[in-house]
Amino acid sequence: MEKNRYLKSKAKNKKTAMTGVWLIILAIALFAFIVVKYARNTAEHIGESRMPEKEDAYEVAKEFVKEDSRSKNLDFGDDGFSYAKTGDSVFVVRSAYTENIGNGESKKTNFSVTIRYHGGSADSRSSWDLLNINLE
């Protein structure tokens, strides 16, 4: 009888110990998942918060010119652009576009766009403010 009680007690203790082991394994797995998720998420945000390069400023400047122009037939071509950073995340982009008027005619327009980068993804228009735009 004494031996039977001892075996039941031992079986109960083993079951409790195994439950504890599974809870510890589950807690470790959950912790590892959270750490990996946080590390991946942080790495993505680090890549997004880089300072803009001249190509980023040019692409955003073209978007502002397209919004300002009445025509939707604009060709920015491959002539290039000039770029200046005037400080405190303010950029001046100068270039030209060709507007297809119709009947095979086109009109070339020079533009100058002054924009300010206020953080976020450098290639996203929502990360920029238009300060000035001149179409010549």
UniProtKB/TrEMBL annotation:
Q: Tell me where the transmembrane regions lie.
A: 21-39
Keywords attached to this Swiss-Prot or TrEMBL record, sorted alphabetically, are: Membrane, Transmembrane, Transmembrane helix
Keyword hit for Membrane? yes
Name assigned to this protein = Uncharacterized protein
Species whose genome carries this gene? Mucilaginibacter straminoryzae
